């Protein structure tokens, strides 16, 4: 049994690596989680603006500290996601509310969640500076995080659904 353990771990590692084959779907999951955090920051800012001015106005400026705090915890939150089999050939990233009630292979699900967290780290490493500036300026609107992060900054999703390649024909995101 002990001799099978390395083979099982290796198999789960390869399965997890393939989990992020669909970078667009993974990016959209990260964007959805970021959207939740950003909406919470906007609610807080709106309350502060209303309290200070006695008039409800949206505060378009988000401090760099708030953005850094928002992005710092994002990839840890992505460990709460895993791939769920939708039908014979499709899988979808889902947020797991209770790991104990998960009906799929829990080890495999945990491997996917770690892969998603790792993917998130690489994605933010690539896009964090530009994303931070856009959020601070108020350029990332409610419901628009996925478009900014996944289409404009990382280019993991294209509006036409085609795969992004640079002028030389090389995948510009192949290290992710």
Automatic annotation (TrEMBL):
Keywords: Signal
Residues in the signal sequence: 1-19
Alphabetized Pfam families for the sequence: DUF3456 (PF11938)
Organism: Linum tenue
Chain ranges of the DUF3456 domain: 62-157
Highest taxon listed in the record's lineage: Eukaryota
Name of this protein: DUF3456 domain-containing protein
Keyword Zinc annotated: no
């Amino acid at each position: 049994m002990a001799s099978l353990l390395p083979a099982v771990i290796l198999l789960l590692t390869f399965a997890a690596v393939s989990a992020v084959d669909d970078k667009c779907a993974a990016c959209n999951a990260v964007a959805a989680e970021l959207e939740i955090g950003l909406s919470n920051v906007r609610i807080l800012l709106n309350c502060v603006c209303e309290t200070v001015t006695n008039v409800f106005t949206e505060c378009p400026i988000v401090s760099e500290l708030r953005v850094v705090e928002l992005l710092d915890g994002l990839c840890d939150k992505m460990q709460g996601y895993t791939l769920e089999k939708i039908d014979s050939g499709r899988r979808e990233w889902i947020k797991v509310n209770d790991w104990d009630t998960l009906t799929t292979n829990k080890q495999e699900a945990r491997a996917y969640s770690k892969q998603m967290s790792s993917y998130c780290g690489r994605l933010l490493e690539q896009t964090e500076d530009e994303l931070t500036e856009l959020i601070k300026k108020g350029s990332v609107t409610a419901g628009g995080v996925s478009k900014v992060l996944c289409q404009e900054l990382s280019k993991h999703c294209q509006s036409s659904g085609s795969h992004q390649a640079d002028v030389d024909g090389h995948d510009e995101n192949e290290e992710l």
